[in-house]
Amino acid sequence: MLKRRDNVLKRRDKRNKRNRRNKRHRSLRARALLALAVIAGSLAIALTTPVRLGLDLRGGTQITLETRSTPTTDADAAATARTVEVLRGRIDALGVAEPTLVRSGDHRILVELPGVHDPKKAADVLGRTAQLTVHAVLGPAGTADGATSPPADPAKERVLPDDSGQPLRLRAADLTGRDVEGAEARFDQQGGAGWHVTVDFSKTGQDRWRQVTARAACHPAGDPQRRVAIVLDNKIISSPQVDPSVPCGTGIPGGTTQITGSFDDTEARELALLISGGALPVPVETVEQRTIGATLGDAAIEAAARAAVIGTALTALFIIAVYRLLGLLATAALACYGLISYAALAALGATLTLPGLAGFVLAIGMAVDANVLVFERAREEYAARGRPSPRSALTAGFRGALSAIADSNITTLIAAGLMFAFASGPVRGFGITLAIGVLASMVSALVISRVLAEYAAGRPAVRRRPRVTGIASTGWVRDRLLRREPFLMRRPRRWLAASAVLAVVAASGVLVRGLDFGIEFTGGRLIEYATNTPVDPDRARTALTDAGFPRAVVQSSGETGLTVRAENLTNADAATVTETIGALGGETKKVRDELIGPSMGDELRRNALIALSLALGAQLLYLAVRFRWFFGTAAVVALAHDVVILIGAFAWLGKPIDGVFLAALLTVIGYSVNDSVVLFDRVRELLGRDRATPLPRLTNQAILQTLPRTVNTGMGAAFILTALAVLADDTLADFALALLIGLAVGTCSSVFTAAALTIELGPHRKPFGGAAVTTGPSGRPG
């Protein structure tokens, strides 16, 4: 009887093992098919769709607009500045990423667009005033002999032809563009109306719309006075009749109307964006259109590419040296990550600038983080098991690291989404690039890397030699920490005091030396030259650097033209610049010499600050929900600490605060939150298993367990950044320096600021609902 029972149990065990093995194989095959589909799709996009290059890498089209005064509005500097902001919104809606718009003098606007396929169309869209008005129709304006009669009172009515050419007498405008809340292009498939534009009125506009349609409804069907005319830039674009079902004096409620016509999709979307973007404060006229060269020379681009290749190779070698076979497979997965990110940028039509390219290469180093999290967790699982196997430890590593990977990436995606929704210009572009990088890194680490690693770990040759995987040993960092087991959180207030002192010293640099804002924030002076012989922009940049203008922006303009932009140029400086250019191009004529406004205007900066504030608030809320409120507070305080130190360091060093620095600052913000989330995830896990140990002890344990991941991830990023700082030109060297400072400060603040503040804010006597525990000075139970 016992023997039969043993046989039944053995058969059941074999069946269960077979079922688990089949389930594991099916899961591996599904992930492998998904990985192949993603890689194949990305490869097809990368081979067929080129990425649009920015103004700094390839140049583009420059359109010069000039504002014109009207009888009611003067085209002064203030009106021109307001016009710049309206144009910026139109360009964003056109889908042109990373444009440059600056006010030149009091009446001109320079618009530089990278990679625009139809610059004439872009100029037409930008130049339209987009004055939208809605009028009641008073009747036809034609006489018996077919002539058009003039309006009886030009102040109260006007005459315009409708879409069929019939002139109509229109009453003074009942609604204007200020009464419009939004417009959207839609396609009516069921009603057969085709493409049309739906216009939504504001609360005030709804009342006025109801009144004008209520008066029109009092006239019989077919009467011209039952029509309502919608006019855009002195042209009737639609004059529909009020539906016969609408009774007299009632009007159309809801505040929504449709503009119909023989639109195609492009025309409908263009009309919607013009109405939504609002009218220009003053009319503009295109006075010039030309092709411009890249703001960076070939030498700078080649140096950046060389630094990127060397830095990426060093990162790959480091990962392979630390994690051996799994490191090699992770490097292959990271190459797939680069392919997926590139294909996503190409598919979305994003514009790639040099800082974006550097950030893209840096993201490859940062994408190592998810793999390092898994591999370090697998090392812990392998060391803790009695009879471990590389495959079981690896599976447990993926399962244990999933929550940290998910939380850190979700917080970053929240920030990226809010930057895209509320910011504009380079901050919005950064949000797109950041979101693409996060999603691609998750596919790389959780799908591609897992397929390769689990397949390799299941091979018999690897099972016989587990040390070749790289997870059979704990690593030298973890070994040293386990031997010494330092109690770093014995006195957390000392770490907080040191962090505060460091932040005060950094912030004092802003007060003592001030911030050296670049031309993007302050504006400056633009001088355009026509030379007798063409001048290579690279030679001009080198000569101007030697003459004392290292931050001058030099571009080719047309065939023999050259433009120089710099901030704080005096007349003596301008004379030196002219002399320098003349020495290179022979006879030189100054075509234009004007003061220009900042490309990052007040509204763009305000929107960027709003987006960043909302991102921090959303991250704080998410961390409070996923962890506890004091974890979120500690992460945000550590983030503010990192930002203050980075800005203060650049103030002390006299480095420029420009668009490149802004990209670096946003990257540091994302990295700082990531580091803190990984640490907090481990603290939460330990608190769930051990409710008796004091919080300082558990936090210290979490720091020691996650420190190998922090060191290895930081080293992976540091290789790329060091290569950029040493080998790239001055612009990217400053970018890399900012990120190196942020990397070091962010790593330290996650341990010594965020963790210490968590202990001070967190529960001291009842760690997450456990029994009361009194902690002594050392943090041990008292």
From TrEMBL:
Residues 159-282 form the SecDF P1 head subdomain domain. It is a multi-pass membrane protein. Gene3D superfamilies: 3.30.1360.200, 3.30.70.3400, Multidrug efflux transporter AcrB transmembrane domain (1.20.1640.10). The chain crosses the membrane at residues 303-323, 328-350, 356-375, 396-423, 429-453, 495-515, 608-625, 630-653, 711-729, 735-759. Residues 82-137 form the Protein translocase subunit SecDF P1 domain. Keywords: Cell membrane, Membrane, Protein transport, Translocation, Transmembrane, Transmembrane helix, Transport. It is found in: Cell membrane. Residues 1-10 have a biased composition (Basic and acidic residues). NCBIfam families: 2A0604s01 (TIGR00916), PRK13024.1-3 (NF009583), secD (TIGR01129), transloc_SecF (TIGR00966). Forms a complex with SecD. Part of the essential Sec protein translocation apparatus which comprises SecA, SecYEG and auxiliary proteins SecDF. Other proteins may also be involved. This is Multifunctional fusion protein.
